[in-house]
């Protein structure tokens, strides 16, 4: 009986040790639902093999994931591009840093009222994201397609006051990015971020105007300054920039988003 009990205790001890080893570390990563959270969950089993439990915390905006990261509620986030990170970090004095480019989600112009951008009438209403960087990105897209002329089209923080020519007298209105796909019936054209377009089942093929692969707006993996060389963070970065992830992006999103590594 003593031998049996001893064996049971040893077996229990080994099981507990293996359980602890399986999740030596835990990472909480904030992400928007599509495609970022999907991509993170795809590589979760690989991180588990490295002894890291990945918890994906979903957000539906671009502000809270940065605040949560800065306040140490999460360990990393994956939901933004560097121009946005730079802007919000400066405005809110956040100590965050990009450690990896993962993919590009082309921003595009969608419409339920017209089928070709040439059909856009004088005085048409165009909705753009209301955050500074994506607003500037939308204006640059309009500039690049000849709908408006900006004073400096290389200025990623361009505002409506930077428009120096608006030949069609377009009415440009800003709205929260997440709401834009729901407003297609209310405007002639809406400039929608790639992740929100995917969530709304909008295809890049349906966009009347679309950003190309030269975009500086690659989605990035972000951590607090000082955590860049954290072992678990480095494992996350490795998994996110792996050939396996590249293959997943290409096969799953079929050109709607493209790898940036």
Radius of gyration using CA atoms only: 22 Å
H/E element string?
HEHEHEHEEEHEEEEHEEHHE
Count of helical stretches: 8
Sheet with most strands: 6 strands, mixed
Mean pLDDT, to the nearest integer, reads 90
Alpha-beta content class: alpha/beta
What is the beta-strand fraction? 15-25%
Helical residue percent?
25-40%
Strand segment tally: 13
Strand order of the main beta sheet, please? 2-1-3-12-4-13
Shape: globular
Straight-line N-to-C gap = 60 Å
Query: Which stretches are poorly predicted, pLDDT < 50 over at least 5 residues?
Result: 5-22
Note the topology:
Elements: H1 2-22, E1 25-31, H2 33-49, E2 52-58, H3 64-70, E3 76-81, H4 82-92, E4 96-104, E5 108-110, E6 125-129, H5 132-144, E7 149-150, E8 163-165, E9 171-175, E10 189-192, H6 194-199, E11 209-210, E12 218-224, H7 231-240, H8 243-253, E13 258-259
Parallel strand pairs: 1-2, 1-3, 6-9, 6-10
Antiparallel strand pairs: 3-12, 4-12, 4-13, 5-10, 5-11, 7-8
Descriptive notes:
The protein is an alpha/beta fold and 261 residues long. The chain contains eight helices and 13 strands. Helix 2 links the parallel strand 1 and strand 2 (52-58). Helix 2 (33-49) crosses helix 7. It is globular and about 60 Å long. Residues 5-22 have low confidence and may be disordered.
Q: Which short descriptors sum up this protein?
A:
single chain, 261 residues, alpha/beta, 6-stranded mixed beta sheet, 5-stranded mixed beta sheet, 8 helices, MetQ/NlpA family ABC transporter substrate-binding protein
């Amino acid at each position: 009986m003593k031998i049996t009990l001893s064996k049971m205790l040893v077996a229990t001890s080994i099981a507990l040790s293996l359980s602890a080893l399986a999740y030596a570390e835990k990472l909480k990563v904030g992400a928007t639902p599509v495609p970022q959270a999907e991509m993170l969950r795809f590589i979760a089993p690989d991180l588990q093999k490295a002894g890291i439990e990945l918890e994906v915390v979903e957000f539906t905006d671009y502000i809270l994931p940065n605040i949560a990261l800065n306040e140490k509620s999460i360990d990393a986030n994956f939901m933004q591009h560097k121009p946005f990170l730079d802007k919000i970090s400066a405005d809110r004095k956040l100590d965050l840093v990009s450690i990896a480019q993962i993919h590009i989600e082309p921003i595009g112009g969608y419409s339920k009222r017209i089928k070709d951008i040439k059909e856009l009438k004088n005085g048409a209403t165009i909705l753009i994201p209301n955050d500074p960087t994506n607003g500037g990105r939308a204006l640059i897209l309009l500039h690049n397609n000849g709908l408006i002329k900006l004073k400096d089209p290389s200025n990623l923080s361009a505002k409506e006051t930077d428009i120096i020519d608006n030949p069609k007298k377009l009415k440009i209105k800003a709205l929260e990015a997440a709401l834009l796909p729901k407003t297609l019936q209310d405007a002639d054209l809406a400039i929608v971020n790639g992740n929100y377009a995917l969530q709304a089942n909008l295809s890049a093929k349906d966009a009347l105007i679309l950003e190309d692969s030269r975009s500086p707006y690659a989605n990035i993996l972000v951590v607090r300054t000082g955590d860049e060389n954290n072992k678990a963070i480095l494992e996350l970065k490795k998994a996110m920039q792996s050939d396996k992830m590249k293959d997943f992006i290409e096969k799953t999103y079929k050109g709607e988003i493209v790898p940036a590594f």
